[in-house]
Amino acid sequence: MEEIELKTKEKPYGLVLTYEDKEETMTDDIVKKTVITNTSFIFALVQNVDWITFDFGDQTYTVTREELEDWYGTELAQFTDEENL
Predict the structure, then answer these.
(1) What is the helix (H) or strand (E) element at residue 64, kind and residue range?
(2) Angle CA(22)–CA(83)–CA(13) in degrees, nearest 5?
(3) Which residues contact 67 (CB under 8 A, 6 or more apart)?
(4) Residue 73: how many CA atoms within 13 Å on its side-chain side?
(5) What is the mean pLDDT of each run of 10 residues along the chain (85 residues)?
(6) Distance CA 65, CA 54 (A)
């Protein structure tokens, strides 16, 4: 990761994570897995983050807490350890 930008001046609060240009070996599946895994852990650990944008140079993904919790079917704040998450 190259840069983390906090967006906390007004609600909804968010993060922008900028990655160096992705390597040729990073397939779309690896990028998507990275996005889902990282958003899951960040939302579980940081209660006031409402959205996260991942910028891979040629691809940008934004995931909201609500979207991910709907996808999982549960609130991410309930997880207390990595194994359960």
Answers:
(1) strand 60-64
(2) 55
(3) none
(4) 0
(5) 91 93 74 91 93 90 96 88 79
(6) 14
